[in-house]
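Tokens for phosphoenolpyruvate carboxykinase (ATP). Go.
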Amino acid sequence: MTPEQFDLLHADMLAHAEGKELFVQDLFGGADPTHRLPTRVFTELCWHSLFIQNLLIEPKPEELDDFDPKFTIINLPSFRADPEKYGCRTETVIACNFIKRIVLIGGTSYAGETKKSVFSMLNYELPGKKVMPMHCSINVGDDGDSAIFFGLSGTGKTTLSAVASRTLVGDDEHGWSENGVFNFEGGCYAKMINLSAEAEPEIYATTQRFGTVLENVVLDPETREIDFDDKSLTENTRGAYPLSFIPNASDTGRAGHPKNIIMLTADAFGVLPPISKLTPSQAMYHFLSGYTAKVAGTEKGVTEPEATFSTCFGGPFMSRHPSEYGNLLRDLIAEHKVDCWLVNTGWTGGAYGTGSRMPIKETRALLAAALDGSLASVEFRTDANFGFEVPVSVPGVDNSILNPRDTWSDKDGYDAQAKKLVSMFIENFKIYEAHVDPDVRDAAPAPAQAAE
């Protein structure tokens, strides 16, 4: 889209809005007062206004008196864009102008576009200030030891970070500045499909609270009871609620510099171990790779998991070159001596269709050991394909899952899948090789190595 087409779209959307009742919110993107983004949001739908009020940070009354928006979002679902006229691809448009600091949204009622617009703007702006924008969850322990959880939808980012033993800073979008880590948001946007009070009690409780926005969730037409297992509309059912609805949520949205970084992946090949320790160079390699599997409900048309690479675990929202984010992250990891872990919440005992999903009980136990420091003292082996360190035995964990090859009945099948996945990593990383240092290139998996 050219700047002229953006201006035409802007003018036509303003004309479309004439005579309509619009809802306006003045909110902050970012809990760090040094780096927050004052944002004004115009919405056509009332529930969209409540959604973004839940998701961003509400100013104090005295801050509204002289609120000066530095970013504007106009969201009109009833506006249908003409691709030929505006240079977009379909009647649905999300047009970002980083110079004018405006985002125009039309032709979609999916509320997530509004919050991702704020994320995209901060992703563009903050690296220039040496602040790392991140698609991640963050929680913090009683000793102030914060942990970052990177991961795409379906990897367990929200679920694994919302635990009663640690304070939740936020579940989706954050920054890492000279002051520590901070939430971009004041709320959570959790997937609701198959939600149960037994498995995820904190998130389930929010669905019973006044003010939570449930999106695409099916209600019984007579009883008005919620059916979280019903995916007739889509598997991408969502709940938007204030962070304060989570009992152990941070009331500041800020925490100190992290002690651990967790990179979550849902490996559909069943090749990756349930947890692996990464060097800083390996961490940058896997951060730039952003490997996972798209799962049903994440994107339209995806009915079964398929391997994908989304750089920085949030490729669609990264408006600068990925190496800028990767280099910034590596520098912060080195400066603050952060331990980095790759956690597979995907398949074990075989690839998708043969194996089964990694037991969440085991994942939680391994994460707890990583976060409390006890995992650092166990025996490790070097993975034959990827070169990272993998624990051999962990107290309280079924050790049979720690070596993926051992969980496969068909060892030759595992070796073939591992070789295939390694080649996919190498092929995907070619676009970054010219932009990274030799140590990061050397962190690539080695296809010539034979599996144990």
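The chain has 13 helices and 25 strands.
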